[in-house]
Amino acid sequence: MEERSLRIIGADKNFFNKITTTLTKILTPTRIGINSMLISIRRNSLLKAFEAYQDGEEQYNDEEEERYRAAYENYLEALDKYVMDSIYKKVKNNTASEFEKNALAKYYEVITLKENEFVEYKHRKQKYLIDLDYENVKNSGKEKVVERYKEFYAYRMDVLYKGILKNYSIKLADTTNVYDSTKDANYSKIFSTLEDYIQNILPLRIDKYKNAKKIKKEYEKYENFIVGKLDGRDTIEKNMILLGISRFLFTHSLPLIVAEQCYEKLLKDTRMLLQDTKIATRREKVYTTLINLIEEYNIRLLSKKVYWDKPQTKNEYKKFWNKYKEISKLKNDNFKEYVKQKEILFIKDDMKKLNNYGKIDYSKIKIYYKRKLIDYGAMRTIKNSYKSEGKYIKIKEVA
Prior knowledge:
This protein is mainly α. It has three domains: 1-137, no CATH class; 141-265, no CATH class; 309-399, no CATH class. The protein is built from 14 helices and two strands; from the N terminus they run ααααααααααααααββ. It has a two-stranded antiparallel sheet with strand order 1-2. Helix 3 packs antiparallel against helix 4 (118-140). It starts with 14 loop residues before the first helix and ends in a 5-residue tail after the last strand.
């Protein structure tokens, strides 16, 4: 699609400029009308091509696909021209609505990606243009058009979000630079993109998924975090739910190896929050979140992992998994004991993992874990010192 400069130049208050500005204000409505008509024509062509393409999707047809792709490209071109010739002109002439001003500002944000993030730019620009027209279609009040367009909108957005997530996944999976400072930004982008999809697109497509009932159940949990201001623990719990739903929706564009890194990031953030929380009641809530996250990570993700980098790690997880299955037998007969033994298992397993993070000081959380184990009777204490040759020698607590 044709790219043009969108730089707004300050108006010179000379005679010729005033005449030009006046003529532009007169001609702009006509230009908007022409662009709107062109969009409408190309939108109708697109919907016809899309519906024919969808009807014949089970029996692949090259001609139908090619017709759909051509209609889609022409449609995007018309939308892009609408932004350039209409919205841009209205903003420049101070006749734009707030919606149009915001639309142009968002367009600028997308354009800035082109030079350094071209793959993301391609997907984001399509998403922007389709979103823009979806608002126009909804505001038209034409129910039949809205319903027809909604089918295309949900389908195409699904494709675009998967492309965006796949792009982030490739970046996270790149191990050539383990100290890359952009990785944290990519984690944030993944969670933000997942939330956008689940909030805006999933309700339109949820019945098309095989695991619709499970997804709806998870979505209901997510809805609890939509309203109100979220603290650090709330944000972690929300992201945990988003990541859980992603295992149903994005198994290819957000593969297991990347989901594993996202879980590890949430675990790290939760551990740090547990260490930094001073108020006892809040600390207990963070601890509960951490236990839930450990269970989610081990049961929903690692239990389905096929390829392991190290055989030793795989064997260690097998031992953990067998213990978990043994403890799970208590669930129906003695639920309280089941919860207790499960926590002990999770704490001991996490304590082993903490020793592998040499660069992060987890001394406070280790002390907290030991106190929990002592309370559960899973760790015994002995005198922390004894006298030898007139000197007191400190010893450690033992499990």
